[in-house]
Amino acid sequence: MIKLKCHVGIGPVVEGEALVTSDDFSARYDLDRIKGVFSRPAHKLFGQSYDGKILVFNTAKGGVASAWMLHEMKTRNVTPKAILFNAANTILAQGAALAALPMVDRFEEGDITQLIKTGDHLIVDPEKGLVTITNRS
Amino acid sequence: MIGCCDMKLNEKEQAMLAGKDGPARQWAIEHQLQVGRMFDAEDMVEVSQSHMMADPESLGEAGVAFVEQFAALPKEQRSVAIPMITDPRGVDLTYYDPLGQTEEMANLERRFVAACEKLGIMMTDTCINYQTIMPPVLGDHIAYGDTGVVIYSNSVCGARSNFEGGPSALAAGLTGRTPRYGLHLDRHRQATKRFLVTEQPEELTDWGVLGATIGRMAGSYWEVPVVEGIDKAPTSDALKHFGAAMASYGSTPLFHIVGVTPECHRIEDVSGDKLEARQVTADDLAALRQPFGAKGEKVDVVVFAAPQLSLVEMQQVANLCQGRSKHSDTSLIVCTAPSVYADAQRMGYNDAIESFGGKVLQGTCFYQQYAREVGEANGWKRLLSNSTKIVNILGGYGYLPALASMEACVASAEKGEIVG
Predict the structure, then answer these.
(1) Global ipTM
(2) Average pLDDT for residues B32-41, to the nearest whole number?
(3) What residues form DSSP beta bridges with B8?
C-alpha cells in the first residue's frame, strides 16, 4: 500500500482502476462524450475508454464551457470515476463540484503521472487529500 | 456540509448554507465552498455582477434541467441577487435551420432561456459586455465567465475576476459573492513574466497574434505577463483581440501593458522591474501564424466572431462589403451582440453585409454554436477568419482554419479563395 498526499480536493471518496498519461486533459476537445472514449488523435490516450476509470493527467486545459461537461457526462453514466492532476485548473474544478466528481491535485511526492501506473487500484479521498495505491507497496 | 469549517462565513452566508434562503442559494454556497477550499480561499468576497457562459452544446439536457429546477422555485428563492448577464447563446433563434442546426438544439436553447429569465438573468448574450453593457471599474470584484471577458475586465478595466465557469457564475449570481482566491488577491496580480515588444501591432489580427504568442509563452492560469514597448494606446477592439487570443493560447486571465493598463503606469507597479525581459521577435510571431497561413486555396466559409464584433468592427466590415458580392461557393458569417445588431440594423451595416451575401447572426458566437455539426451540415472545412482565437479553437472541431486580416478575409470571400 502506497499513500500519496495531495491538496484537499472535491467530491466523495471513490475506489477504482487508474488510467494514466503524462498528457493534459480537455473535456471539450479530447473526448467523444457519447461513446466514452478519447477521440482527439493527438492525445496519448486516443481510442481508450475512460468510462469507470480514475484518470491521471498532468494538467487541465480548455475554456469556460467545459465546466458544465462533467455534470453532463455524469448524468448519462458514461464518466470517469475520478480525475487526478499534477495541477487542475479552476474551470474543471468548478465543473467537478457541480458534478460531485472526485478531483484532486498538487501531490507532495512529485509527478503523479509517474507515481501511479495504469492498472493500479486506487482509493481517492478528496476530503483528506489522500490517494492510496492498494496493489503495490 | 463540505468545507464549512475551512472558510470564514458571515451570518448571511451561514443562513444560505443552512438553507434559509431556499435550495438554489444553498446549492450555490455549497458549490462555492468546495471550489474555495480547493483554491485556499479564506472567505467570500461580494461581487457586483455575474456573467454566465452556458451554451446548450456544453450544458446538454442535464445542464438545462439543472437550471430548470431552480426556475421552478418561488420568486424570492430563485431570483439572482446581483445583476447577472449571459455570454453568447448557441442558437440564434431567428436563424438556425439554414445553418443546419436542428429543432432539438433550438428547443434546448428555448428551455434554457426561459429558465434564465425566471431567475431574473438578463439575456445579453454577449462576450463583449465590457464594450456594450456595463464595464466593470478598477478594483471591482466580479464573477465573469468566458476567458475573453475575464482577461479584458481584469487587465483593461482593472476589475477582479477568476475564470468562472457556468455553474460558478450561476452560484455567484445567486449568492452575490464568490470565494476570494486567485485574481481577487493582490498577490496573484503581480507580474511573473516580462515581455518586450519591438514591432508595433497594427491590424486587429496583429494584436491577436501578439496576444497568442505571449499567452503561449506565459502558459498557465497563474502566470501574469507584463508587456513593455507598446508606444501608443491601443483601441478597445485591439485589446479585445489581444486578450482573447492570449487567454485562448495560454489560459491566461490577466496581463499588464506598461503605460496602458490601469494597474501598471510604471513597470515597478507590478514588480516587473525584477524580472528578466524576453523579447517577442518577428520569428516568434511568424511561428504562431505559420499553421494558419494558407493561400490560394478555396475557402468554404469566412467567419468574423470570437469575440463578437463591436459596432466599430461592424462598420468596418460593412464598408469593406459595400458594392461587392461574395463568391457563390463561399459563405460569410458575422457574429455580434444583440444590442450591436440593433444599432447596426439602424445604421445600415447589416444590410451592407447581407447585400454582399453574408449573414449577420445575433447573440451567438461561431465556436459556441455547435460548430462541428454546423460545419458538417454545410460542408465547411476550410475556414478563414481574422480572429486568432477562433483559428486556435476550430482545429479541434474538424476545420482547417486560416488567418488573415479583416480586409483580406472579405477579399477572399469575394474571390472564393484565400488571398494573401
Answers:
(1) 0.94
(2) 96
(3) B43
